């Protein structure tokens, strides 16, 4: 936030019958009063934002995956026109002078990477002010190879409630999120993945799935999704079905004993039996 500066303008008082304080003049020329008018300025940097937060995921501040970004200018002093460009001389990818609006859109040059966007505003008094802002354009989805998901990749038979590692490799991006990995599972051979295992995981290559869900299915698959800072996503899934099975119902041991130990005397021993 910059320091706001004012200058005084003398303006004609619109109604000579209305009480006017701090007025000067009179007669046929009317009366005049002075008002404080903020000098033209832009406060803060040019704010650049991703224009669509659902394609497919929201972008972090300072990143966009759309070539056209939203521009917000915080201006004082009644700007009437503005110009946007990617250099301080306003010659590279310039909009030319256009009517001022606080919020507008600007189409970046057609290459991924960090972009500086410069804005200049001007008003009817001939004043002008300029500022710049930075945004990174990233339209490249994360690298997630078709065999990124290493386990479970099909054929595993795991017990419900047990603990197993989900492992992956080869996930990368120039602007990967700090915690980019989401894991889900399907019980319909991968037609749908409505069940979340974990979100916001580091790209460490392993996650301990503990406990496995209490399901009994031979058509389970895992979906791994990686997200970058601009909201681009890529995925890999288990190449084939694996099984999460219910534990075999049973008891670990039982005993058979005389139900009446005083008819007329106790029986000698119980007979222990073990079953599984
Ligand atoms: Ca977007
Ligand atoms: Ca990317
Ligand atoms: Ca795969």
Overview of the molecule:
- The chain has strands spanning 6-12, 23-25, 31-38, 41-42, 47-50, 63-64, 68-72, 75-76, 81-85, 98-99, 103-107, 113-122, 128-137, 149-151, 157-159, 164-168, 176-186, 195-201, 206-209, 217-228, 233-237, 242-245, 254-256, 271-273.
- By secondary structure, it is mainly β.
- The protein folds into 3 domains: 6-15 and 22-38, no CATH class; 41-137, Immunoglobulins (Immunoglobulin-like), CATH 2.60.40.10; 149-245, Sandwich (Immunoglobulin-like).
- The strands form 7 sheets. Strands 15, 17, 18, 20, 21 and 22 form a 6-stranded mixed beta sheet that branches. A 5-stranded mixed beta sheet has the order 6-13-12-9-10, with no helix packed on it. A 3-stranded antiparallel beta sheet has the order 1-3-2, with no helix packed on it.
- Residues 271-276 have low confidence and may be disordered.
């Amino acid at each position: 936030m910059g320091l706001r500066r004012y200058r005084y303008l003398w303006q004609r008082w619109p109604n000579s019958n209305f009480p006017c304080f701090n007025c000067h003049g009179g007669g046929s020329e009317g009366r005049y009063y002075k008002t404080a008018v903020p000098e033209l300025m832009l406060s803060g940097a040019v704010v650049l934002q991703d224009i669509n937060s659902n394609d497919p995921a929201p972008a972090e501040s300072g990143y966009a995956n759309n070539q056209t970004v939203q521009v917000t200018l915080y201006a004082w002093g009644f700007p009437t026109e503005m110009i946007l460009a990617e250099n301080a001389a306003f010659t590279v990818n310039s909009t030319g002078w256009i009517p001022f609006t606080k919020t507008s859109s600007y189409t970046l040059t057609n290459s991924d990477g960090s972009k500086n966007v410069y804005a200049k505003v001007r008003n009817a008094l001939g004043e002008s002010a300029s500022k710049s802002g930075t945004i990174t354009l990233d339209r490249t989805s994360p690298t997630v190879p078709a065999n990124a998901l290493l386990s479970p990749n099909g054929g595993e038979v795991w017990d419900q409630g047990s603990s197993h590692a989900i492992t992956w490799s080869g996930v990368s991006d120039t602007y990967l999120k700090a915690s980019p990995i989401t894991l889900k599972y399907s019980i319909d051979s991968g037609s749908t993945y409505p069940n979340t295992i974990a979100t916001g995981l580091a790209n460490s290559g392993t996650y301990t799935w503990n406990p496995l869900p209490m399901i009994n299915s031979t058509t389970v698959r895992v979906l791994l999704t990686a997200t970058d800072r601009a909201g681009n996503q890529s995925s890999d899934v288990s190449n084939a079905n694996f099984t999460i099975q219910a534990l075999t119902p049973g008891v670990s041991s039982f005993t058979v004993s005389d139900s009446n130990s005083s008819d007329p005397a106790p029986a000698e021993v119980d007979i222990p039996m073990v079953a599984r």
